[in-house]
Write a structure and sequence with these properties.
single chain; alpha/beta; Alkaline Phosphatase, subunit A; seven-stranded mixed sheet; binds calcium ion
Length: 482
């Protein structure tokens, strides 16, 4: 069973003699797909620390984002509400002015006696997505590429001229984020290392209150810069298998999603950089894994080792050429399937993988339950506490949404995609793990489609305004509609 407090349910005040409320260590990585040892997406990948966390905690091997893109995924997780409820579907939409009354996960902890602290990318990384009132203390993200960061979007970053040798991946005439390579600096100077260092220092201090500590790692997001030793782990990486006709049975909206950012995909192929790019992604995963190991070691040697809930998640997956795509923002497994692990307080049967479909939306109500916080009626996820207590507990199918009206429903076996024009895809993942054969048109599966379609959101909230619709002041964190 969980603690006495959570058993008593909502708003239970601490009881005399009750265990102190658990702390939370909330770790995120960015754009990490299932190329993680314990998830089996890429045999040969080196993620010993995540694998160790799976062995001593609970791996959710069938976890999916609410939306396969940074801001809508993170906004959904941190507000507890789907994009179809909030209207936040893209990276251009500030959640705060659209949802002024939303009580986010860190705010809810703050309002209930916790100290909320964080570092790195927790909310989306552009200015205005991480209001200072979310936290008691926060170390802003340190970018590895200050030459790329536009100061109107990243006002806390000191922009510098392009360094010699840029872009480091050797793509011709290339400017921007789509870069990878080894930077000429020690590991400890990378931004994610600094976030982990900050959190490790936090864990060394005596904390007066229970804490919610968020550490958001940027890796393996582009630009995929990492120390050389991580690149050296992958001298000859294997490439994904991509049939040439893989998109032939995909409806037009699916083809359009696959073709987004096609220029970057085409250049990688044209300039012979596919293997280099896969290697950089693997290196960035292993770098993130090493930093996670560092952070978990800091917790283990701290005073909080035995009274902390640990959760690790990635906001979305990532394509590396599959479906002729190189990014996220699709409704296939590659983009929606993410690492999700929990360990520490509340986890029974450690080392037993939970294979039920679960959503990142489930994290907020899970932490509310484990920490005995008041429940919030607007949360649309389902607490994972029953699965933490019993690895065989049931969980209903989960939905990922990209843009209004486009959804994927995932259960233990099937992926059912329905686009806004009614076109469909259905994949039997037991027989077709790479989702090569769309069988939505086969009448034998009409029953499967109908049973999954019951989980599709009935309505899609209209898109909320975008950044261009506001004047935003970073100093005061205020928005004014133009
Ligand atoms: Ca992301």
């Amino acid at each position: 069973m969980l603690s006495r407090r959570s058993f008593l349910g909502a708003a239970a005040a601490p009881l005399a003699g009750a265990a102190p409320p658990p702390n939370v260590l909330f770790i995120s990585v960015d754009d990490m797909n299932d190329w993680v040892g314990c998830l089996g997406g890429y045999p040969g990948v080196r993620t010993p620390n995540i694998d160790r966390m799976a062995a001593r905690g609970a791996l959710f091997s069938n976890a999916h984002c609410a939306s396969p893109l940074c801001n809508p995924s993170r906004t959904a997780l941190l507000t507890g509400m789907r994009p179809t409820t909030t209207g936040v579907y893209g990276n251009e939409q500030w959640w705060r002015p659209a949802l002024p009354n939303a009580v986010t996960l860190p705010m809810h902890f703050r309002r209930n006696g916790y100290y909320a602290a964080g570092a790195g990318k927790v909310f989306h990384h552009v200015a205005g997505f991480n209001p200072p009132d979310q936290w008691d203390e926060f170390q802003l993200q340190v970018f590895d590429d200050p030459w790329y960061r536009r100061t109107e979007w990243y006002p806390w970053v000191k922009k510098i001229p392009n360094p010699p040798g840029h872009p480091f991946n050797g793509l011709q005439n290339f400017q921007g984020e789509f870069d990878w390579g080894v930077l000429d600096k020690p590991e400890s100077e990378y931004g994610d290392f600094k976030a982990v260092q900050w959190a490790s220092d936090f864990l060394k201090k005596k904390q007066e209150k229970p804490f919610f500590l968020a550490v958001g790692l940027w890796h393996p997001h582009i630009p995929m810069f990492a120390p050389k030793k991580y690149f050296d782990m992958y001298p000859d990486p294997r490439l994904p298998e991509v049939p040439e006709n893989d998109l032939d049975d995909v409806p037009p909206i699916g083809k359009r999603l696959a073709a987004a950012r096609i220029e970057e995909h085409d250049r990688i192929f044209k300039e012979g950089k596919w293997r280099d790019a896969v290697r950089a992604y693997l290196a960035s995963i292993s770098f993130a894994d090493a930093l996670i190991g560092r952070l978990l070691a800091a917790l283990e040697t701290s005073a909080y080792a035995n009274n902390t809930v640990i959760v690790l998640w990635s906001d979305n997956g990532w394509h590396l050429g599959e479906k002729q795509h190189w990014h996220k923002s699709t409704l296939w497994e590659r983009a929606t399937h993410v690492p999700l692990l929990m360990a520490g307080t509340g986890v029974k049967s450690p080392g037993v993988t939970r294979t039920q479909p679960v959503s990142l939306l489930d994290i907020y109500p899970t932490l509310v339950e484990l920490c005995g916080l008041p429940r919030r009626a607007e949360l649309e996820g389902e607490s994972l506490a029953p699965l933490l207590a019993n690895p065989k507990a049931p969980h209903k199918p989960v939905v990922s949404t990209f843009e209004p009206g486009n959804h994927a429903v995932r259960d233990e076996r099937w992926r059912y995609i329905r686009y806004r024009d009614g076109t469909e895809e259905l994949y039997d993942r037991h027989a077709d793990a790479n989702e090569y054969r769309n069988i939505a048109g086969d009448a034998r599966y009409d029953g499967v489609k109908a049973s999954l379609a019951r989980y599709l959101p009935a309505k899609s909230a209209p898109q909320v305004p975008v950044r261009a619709d506001y004047d935003f002041d970073f100093a005061t964190h205020t928005w004014r509609r133009k």
